[in-house]
Amino acid sequence: MKIKMLNRNQAECTRERAGDLQRVFRNPDPALHPFERAREYTRALNAVKLDRVFAKPFVSAMDGHSDGVFCMAKNPKRLNVLASGACDGELRVWNLSGNSCSFNADGAHKGFVRGLSWSADGSRLLSCGDDKTVKLWSLRAASDGAADGAAESALQSTFLGARAFTSIDHTWDRSGLFATGGAALDIWHTQRSKPVHSFSWGVDMIHAVRYNPAQANVVGSTASDRSIALYDTRLQSPVKKLVLQMVSNTLAWNPMEPFNFTVANEDHNLYSFDMRKLDQATCVHMDHTGAVLDIDFSPTGQEFVSGSYDRTLRIFKRPGKSGSGHSREVYHTRRMQRIFCVKYSMDSKYVLSGSDDTNIRLWKADASKQAGVLLPREKQAQQYQDTLKRRYGHLSEIRRIEQHRHVPKVIMKTKNKKREMRNSALRKEGNRRKHSAPGVVPFKAARKKKIVTVVE
Q: Do both 108 and 237 map to the same domain?
């Protein structure tokens, strides 16, 4: 009896819980497992199929705006705080944990709220709009937001401009500087009522301004003359200008590789550039069938999300990774309209979209990932399945299942039409090259085709 009890206690010591299965020790000798690769392939195929079965990316929707959500800003210090601005001038701050509005300024601006940006410490919020004003809000003064007069107590200061503002961005440090876009690129300080510097490079309107995450003196902008310009606030002069064939709506810097940035263009594509070499793009990201309106990088720098006029949200891998030219994920719903703004959460697990149907939607960055805390055995099983999918991902059957996505019929028809147009243009160019003298019709890479000129 004592021997039986001892064996039972030893067996239970090898298990994490009394209800777990007995641990079986395995001999890894390849000679004993001749069908190991066949079994692994079957497991990888089942793992990919289950990912598609359990792919439920939509988490929740936050309604409350009475007009389309035009811009959003994520708090750099708090994961569950998001600010949003609407086309009717309303400003809201959301608590993502409870899907509730913690602060509301109904008449923050007259007209569109064009841009939002948090300070580096996450305590103050900057907003700009069509009413030629920039407003600085102190969210510590109105933490609840439900009390009467909360908007008035939260408004800390107002900056007046000569013309309407189109974009705003705060520096990544605590210097108190922020940049605005409009008729010119202006650099402001929170303690001064007039711009510190003003830059103009012969453009009518600047669409977006973004500070570099590493170099606080470098600012990137996109303008109405189809240009992408880099400015150095330390030298108080422009540095470089890149002109594309069509207008770029906005740009985003890679937070882990600050010399790389990606622009969202009107020709349905996104272009990634290295600021040290602007004569060609490092990658062209395709798959959208409408103008790309917004883009935001993951805090890890490995992926970015884009929102388009075609009512879809797409997630791309960073430039340089395999398959980065095409999206790895596409999200859409029947009720979601034109997407004006997108954001990646600060923990890189979720993405947010603001659309014309007055809703803010929260999505999982990994559509099939299980939410909540995983047990150690579940983590090991998930890591094993991910390893198998990477090992056998090059095989045709697994690649077909992993890459297939259902999209609305109108997007599929537009995609097929774009493919026919692209093939027709390539065929025409080939015929011209075939019937011309050598060198008259040169070959040009896709990364250089859309670049008109680079001005320094």
A: yes
